[in-house]
Amino acid sequence: MGWFKRMKDNIATPTIAKKETPEGLWHQCKKCKTMMTAEEHKENLWVCPTCEHHERINSTEYFSFLFDGGKYSELSPKLISGDPLKFEDTKKYKDRLKAAKAKTGLTDAITTGYGKMEDVDVVIACMNFNFIGGSMGSVVGEKISRAIDHCIKYKKPFILISKSGGARMMEAALSLMQMAKTSAKLSLLAEAKLPFISFLTDPTTGGVTASYAMLGDINISEPNALIGFAGPRVVKETIGRDLPKGFQTAEFVLEHGFLDYIVERKDMKAKLAQSIRLFMN
Amino acid sequence: MVYLDFEQPIAELNEQLEKIKEVQTKGDVDVSTTIKDIEKQIAVKIKEIYENLSAWQQVQVSRHPQRPYTLGYIDYITDDNSFIELHGDRNVGDDKAMIGGMGSINGESVMFIGQQKGINTKMRQYRNFGMPNPEGYRKALRLMKMAEKFNIPVVCLIDTPGAFPGLEAEERGQGEAIARNLIEMAQLKVPLVCIVIGEGASGGALGIGMGDKVFMMENTWYSVISPENCSTILWRSWDHKEEAAEKMKLTSQDMLELGLIDGVIKEPIGGAHADPEKAFENVKNAIINSLNELRDIEPQKRVASRIKKFSTMGHCEEA
Ligand SMILES: [Zn+2]
Question: Does the distance separating the beta carbons of B176 and A172 come in below 8 Å?
Fold first, then answer.
């Protein structure tokens, strides 16, 4: 992957080169501020070669390297959110949806698809944090539900990549009930003895943590991902003091017994595929 | 008596009544007709106010400090001296915000589980304001699984402002504890009846809420977040809590219309706190009727229809 070569290149990233390259083709690491070309960043699976910061990515990016050759068939691509409560706060929910669609080119906060991973048939659902904070509304619940139906029908394992701030408030109790819905469907997947691998990425909080994200036969995460039920700010307010260093990181959650392992993005596909081979033996 | 802000007209009439009664005890003037008249006015006022409660006012009633709590219901509903409280999750400790135990109704054993709020300042702290830690959810699950083993139906009484968002709660896996309950409740082989008796806040409520039958008492709320927190997040201030309550469709009537619950249990006029025994009786009847309905259904069928019910919740469109 040219990992080390790029590291060297980055240290030497000249400001001249920056000027010569059109805007938008550069990426600056949010953590260590290293500059690199967007192309380099992408080749490195959106991980900083200097500090190994795993940049938040969405379904398009995950699917591009998890499915063999980036090829997959999307499930229920036409499913979109209605506005059952005619919800309006400072903005109309309808307008929020429109804006999110325009910004991301996605239909909702999750994309589901099936294809091959190291030649093994898999179904992968991946949340899109860029779509209203990856919030879980009716479409997220229904797409997960249909993906599980597909798994059961064709006896395929299920991988779900979570990345969400939690429930979608604009769907209120309908959103809450997606926790019940997805958990009920996962109980059917379990009955069918098909593996469910939950991959928790930065951030996974709220109702998503309190339902499918924590229900994997194995739960996996990326380095340093934020994982929790209550958000860190809420916990801080509750206890009235600063949070300990590393609180609610993937490493913290692993240490407390709620994750099976943490994997770097470059090893993610191989490790997922191997886990599934062991299950489906 | 504690009065909510919108109950002030009732408070004023009651104050008048007290004064007149004082006059009467002095014995000089006959004020019995005035007393009757004011009593009538009070009854009319209560009815008028309670028949027109806004969503936010219903939220206020659900949190009324004199509203009966879980153990009060259980004490009334179960046969005399039949209830035995059971403690602990067999792992970390005993959560005082989540209570459980077995008792009988007309001779039939029932497992009761519910969040418990405190009746005074000291007890409110002891009960952690009805906000369970992970061990509360795990205790609830232990009792559900035990009920399943002995073929005993489960009744959950929901009354919580939310699962506790504390540091230790996170360390011990609050999210996992609730999630585990959801997947286990989906497959529980015995009848499961869940009733929101006060506040039904988010995952903390749903964590004991996946029933074959889910009811809400008339003046309760059930949603993904409290109206105050919704207001804070979406409007960036607490000032829109009334509007948030309205928009979220969180009242019992709204939830029934959305098809997210199976029924509404009537409260006595003036709310459950005005006549707790009447409230207990209504809840008891709902439990008995539900168990009668669910008892003879084959466990597999019951589980299948429970899963189907929750699996069809949501509202999507096809582009
Ligand atoms: Zn970096």
Answer: no
Q: Residue B183 Cα, ligand 1 centroid: separation in angstroms?
A: 39
Report residue B218 CA to chain centroid gap: 10
Q: Which of A90, A181, A206 sits opposite B234 (nearest CB)?
A: A90
Structure-token pair, residue B118 = 């405190």
CB A181 within 8 A of CB B310: yes
**Nearest residue of A to residue B209, measured between CA atoms:** A180
Interface confidence, given as ipTM, is 0.96
pLDDT digits (tens, 9 = 90+) for B167-198: 999 999 999 999 999 999 999 999 999 999 99
Give the distance from residue A184's alpha carbon to the nearest chain B alpha carbon, in angstroms: 5
Mutant choice from A143, A181, A188 vs B, greatest count of B C-beta within 10 A: A181
What homologous superfamily is domain B58-310 in, according to CATH?
2-enoyl-CoA Hydratase; Chain A, domain 1 (3.90.226.10)
For the segment A25-78, what is each residue's pLDDT rounded down to a tens digit? Answer: 999 999 999 999 999 999 999 999 999 999 999 999 999 999 999 999 999 999
Domain boundaries, chain A: 1-55, 56-279
CATH match of A56-279 with 3.40.50.720: no
Q: Determine which helix (DSSP H) or strand (DSSP E) holds B300, and give its type and residue range.
A: helix B299-311
Closest CA to B115 of B233, B220, B227: B220
The reported pTM is 0.94
